[in-house]
Amino acid sequence: MQIFQDVRAFMSISGARILLAMFLLYGIGTGMLAPMNAVYLDESVGLSKEQIVAVFAVSLFCNIAITITVGWFSDRLRRKKKLPLAAAFLCIIGLAVYMNASDFRSALIGMTIAVAPSGLIMGQLFGMARSHFARKAGELVEMAQLWLRASFSVGFFAGLLLGANIFLIATFRGVLWGNVAGYVCLAVLLLAYKETAGEPGTKTAVRGEPFSLVMLIALLLLSCADAIRGLYLQLVVLKLFGKPEVMSYIWSTQAVFELFFMTLGGYWAARYGSKKIIFLGGCFALAAYLTYTSSGSLPVFFAVQPLYSFFVSILAGVAMGYVQRMFLSRTGFGASLYVFITQTASLIGYFLPLFIQGITPDIFYIPSALVTLSLLIIGIVLYRERGSKDRNAKKPSVVNRAV
To answer: How far apart are CA 153 and CA 28, in angstroms?
Structure first.
């Protein structure tokens, strides 16, 4: 089968395995803390809902500014790995401050230092990876990107399970130290990784995508909906079921499906087009959000995860590749732009639920509306593209009849 041949070819490429390990271990460290962050600020530091949002918003705003600024000029650098390496060390310093936070001010300073530089990590890692595989195996660039992103997801969900169990043994402090360990592992692997420099005469087999501001807006809306779920679902689950570790178990069920869905989505996108697959993923997300608003059953929350896993796989894999292909000659900027979109969406998404009083499942009516608007935009784009193709297909026949 084609997929097994591609996997074997991918694993035989020099540097592929260390890149996989890099994303996997970084994902484990990140996954330990992600579902516990808001809960930590709520229960251990004692912040209010508005203060929690402010901490996330300020740190994300700084992250966004650094990500797009550095992404703009990073392609001028011959070697990019020094950027994520420096960011990893700064994140470790920030986490040291964050884990000793006792009030709003110290939590804000710690999280800002820990989060602001992290935008350099994912964007620049994917920029490095795209350049690496474009020079060594151009025909596998897109699937290589998906498998690396899937490796991060597998690590992330492994971190969720590990973090939930560490929390039961060592409370939030143990989880925070696990996040520190993830950055340490990333730094060690970056030091060991031999970055591929430009090689004359190498060509990529990947076709670019035309720039589309409308599609970027649609992706922003989808990412905004996902950001709302990422922050507020853990708080809603805590209010409904009363156990912080439950959210880690809910998210970890995605790991069972995400690697498969991300691979499947990549092949489908190559066959049917990225926009159609993104539209399909949005439909699955809408179904999940409406389920959150209408059910207070824990088994139902688990059951809806495969639907949401498909959406996340498309948003994190297919959509990322779609944005990067708009800027094939600027890999660092293309990858950073995708991170910029997701982080900007997070910044917007954190504030929108403040219009709903308290923490209730009604919050998920907001991402439902955002996804519906995004689907409408993508649907219009697909309809216009189909109309344009039909008109172009008819032109030769008109000429032939005239002759």
So the answer is: 9
Residues 322, 308 contacting (CB under 8 angstroms): no
Those residues whose C-beta lies under 8 Å from the C-beta of residue 312, and which sit 6 or more positions away, are 153, 226, 254, 258
Name the residue type at position 2: Q
Would 400 be classed as within a structural domain? no
Count: domains in the chain: 1
**Residue 288 located in a structural domain:** yes
- Residue 312 inside a domain? The answer is yes
The amino acid present at 285, given as its one-letter code, is A
- Return all residues near 354 (Cβ < 8 A) that are at least 6 apart: 49, 50, 53
Helix (H) or strand (E) holding 172: helix 141-192
For residue 111, give its domain range.
15-195+206-395
Residue position matching structure tokens 């994902």: 27
Average of per-residue pLDDT across 243-249: 68
> pLDDT by residue (tens digit) across 144-192?
877 787 788 778 878 877 887 888 787 788 888 888 888 898 899 999 8
In a domain, 200, yes or no: no
| Mean pLDDT value across residues 78-102 | 87
Determine contact, residues 340/202, Cβ cutoff 8 Å: no
User: pLDDT tens, 5-19?
Assistant: 777 887 888 888 898
